[in-house]
Structure formats: structure tokens, C-alpha cells
Design brief:
Pfam families: TetR_C_31, TetR_N. By secondary structure, the chain is mainly alpha-helical. It contains nine helices and no strands. It folds into two domains: 50 residues, Arc Repressor Mutant, subunit A; 135 residues, Tetracycline Repressor, domain 2, CATH 1.10.357.
Length: 195
């Protein structure tokens, strides 16, 4: 059997962890279960990541990176400021609708990280990254449309994300397409009024 380097094994283990924890939850994500998911020895996980928490950190980073990439690709290039923000919100909402299990996993990992000191930096990085990209997209929409922002962009981004996270949690708990569309429009209107 050919030797696989830690650099090659790393993305395989992250994917195996995501697949397993998406199906069965974070509590099921032991190093033993993750190694079995990929069909490798449990020692491979420890050799590649050191600890389970380091693997969880890598999973959080991967989920965040995937989400940011999808939203950045959907950044609008036309329309006024409100239309641009709605297009961004709609693109982000489509990721919730098409990948609810990823949002559920990210929510579970966030709650797990709140009680795991070793993951506090990963949690900080996740929220800082999401806030930074949201701020950047709001600024780009304002610059492109000539809209003068009345609030610091980071404040507007945090407001948007707080409401969006609440909507995502409601969707996971009790989906209601009609109500969600109305809330999404109201969220964008509130963000535009604030900005």
C-alpha cells in the first residue's frame, strides 16, 4: 500500500469528518468514527491533526471557506444599492436552502466551540471572516451604486449577520418558505435603512 502524506490525508479527513458529522452530528465525530469513515487507522487522525479539536477547527475553517466562496461568487454587478443587497441576501439564503445540513453542522460546531477553549480562536476566525466578507460586499455595493453609508460597514454587516443567523436557525427548526421570503425582504429593507 502506498504511503499517503499528512498533506494529502488532511483534506480527506476533513471531508470524512464533514460527511460523518453532517449525517450524525458533532457528538458522533470521534476520531475513531472519523477514521472509520475514511477507512484509515485512528492514529492517522492524530498524526495528521494532533487532536480532535484541531480536526474540528479545520472542519470549521473548511465550512466557512466554502460559504464565503459561494457568496463572493454571487456578488451582484448591477442594480441599485437595495437591489444589490437583496441579491446578496438571496444568494446567501440559497446556500441555506440547498445545504441546510452544512448550516446545522456549522451551528453545532459553533456551540461546541463556545465550551471548548481550544476552539475559541477558530470561532473568532469564523465570525471575523464572515463579518469581513459581508462588510466588503456591502462596501462594494455602496461604491458601485454611489450609496453613502451612514454606519460603519462592520456594524451594518454584524446587524445583517445576526438577523440572518436567526433566520437560518428558524429555517432549520421550522421551515416556512413564504414567511422566510417576507423576512428576507424585511431584513434587506432594515439593512438599507440602517446603512
Amino acid at each position: 500500500m502506498a504511503h499517503v502524506t499528512a498533506a494529502e490525508r488532511r483534506p480527506q479527513l476533513i471531508k470524512a469528518a464533514i460527511d460523518l458529522m453532517t449525517r450524525e452530528g458533532v457528538a458522533a465525530g470521534s476520531t475513531r468514527a472519523i477514521s472509520a469513515e475514511l477507512g484509515v487507522a485512528q492514529a492517522t487522525v492524530h498524526y495528521t491533526f494532533g487532536t480532535k479539536e484541531e480536526l474540528y477547527r479545520a472542519v470549521m475553517e473548511q465550512l466557512t471557506e466554502d460559504l464565503v466562496s459561494q457568496v463572493e461568487q454571487a456578488a451582484p454587478t448591477h442594480g441599485n444599492f437595495e437591489e444589490s443587497l437583496f441579491a446578496l441576501a438571496e444568494a446567501l439564503w440559497q446556500t441555506v436552502l440547498s445545504q441546510p445540513e452544512s448550516y446545522q453542522l456549522l451551528t453545532e460546531l459553533t456551540l461546541y466551540a463556545l465550551r471548548t477553549p481550544h476552539l475559541s480562536q477558530a470561532l473568532d476566525n469564523h465570525f471575523a471572516g464572515i463579518t469581513a466578507v459581508t462588510s466588503q460586499l456591502i462596501e462594494q455595493a455602496a461604491d458601485r451604486t454611489g450609496h453613502r453609508l451612514q454606519q460603519p460597514t462592520a456594524t451594518t454587516a454584524r446587524f445583517f449577520l445576526a438577523a440572518f443567523d436567526g433566520m437560518s436557525m428558524q429555517h432549520l427548526s421550522m421551515p416556512d418558505e413564504k414567511a422566510e421570503q417576507a423576512c428576507l425582504k424585511a431584513l434587506v429593507s432594515a439593512v438599507v435603512a440602517m446603512a
